[in-house]
Amino acid sequence: MNTVEFKEAMEKRMYIVAKSEMHLHMHEMAQRALKITSQMNGQYHTPDELRELFSELIGQELDDGFGMFPPFNADYGLNIKIGKNVFINSGCCFQDQGGIEIGDNALIGQQVVIATLNHDITPAKRQNMLPSLVKIGNDVWIGAKATILSGVTIGNGAIVAAGAVVTKDVPENTVVAGVPAKVLNAQGIETEILQIGNKPVQDCVGCNGCVEKGKCVFSGDCVNEWIEKAKSADGFIFATPVYYAHPSGRILSAMDRLFYAGGKNFEHKPAAVIASARRAGTTATLDTISKHFGIAQMPIITSTYWNMVRGNTPEQTKQDLEGMKTMRNLGANMAWILKCIDVGKNQGIEAPQAETSALTNFIREK
Which active-site residues does the annotation give? Predict the structure, then answer.
């Protein structure tokens, strides 16, 4: 069997019997892949040299926008197709016999595993395998240590969060993530993760320029984009690390301007806050962020404990079993409230109109 015949068989998802001609071909080609990846992983190479080696591995000339950090491992090599401007981070393992297609501008995080083979579940036939293509669309971001299983298609613009195990297709422009977003997605509620990152955020200066514009006068960061997104959103979960027993200064600056310039877009929509810390300061952080919800008439979603997790890294946080349980219950509660509000709207129940005329000053002029 040659490579062309093998790839045609994989497209047809032909059953692979152990020690068959097809199986022996896989082993032969695995040795070729090991030889090339050993070169790639065994010493330093310039970006151009890595691109040449990867092109040799997959039998496809890659564009100048391709980048990777070794080490990298592939079981077959020649059944990988790569689009333009793709980046593959270190430690990834591609089991590509069944076929892996990666679209333009995709980002593949550290230690991502893509598997395209399933073994037969019958013990007597366990050495036999069934292949199925994994297809990753354009502009997809796959986080570190995610696992993509056989037959999965990930739609354009989707995000797979770090550590996720993807067993089903991911629609375009959606997120497959850990708790609580995973719980929401499982109940048919779409989620989108927005991040401030490490970029500076302008503080509110109380200029009132947003009153006429309907948006903040400062346009160099995420705030006005998020105000627009809030119009169509049905609920919100704000999350922050703890700095000196209080929320991140960036999220406070963003939320002050979000709620001052775009408060109407948040009114009567359920919200929750999550605090992540190594040790202390979580309750003060939760209280500070929740103040924004209270002034915007937003139902505040709680869980079976305060919405907090402990750990310095995602791996450490996953060890906080009670924290993970709290996040799952938070996601379930948010989904329930969102569905209840939707039922109410369908029954003609509208949000109340608040009184706005009365203002009391505690300082009196003599």
Answer: 119
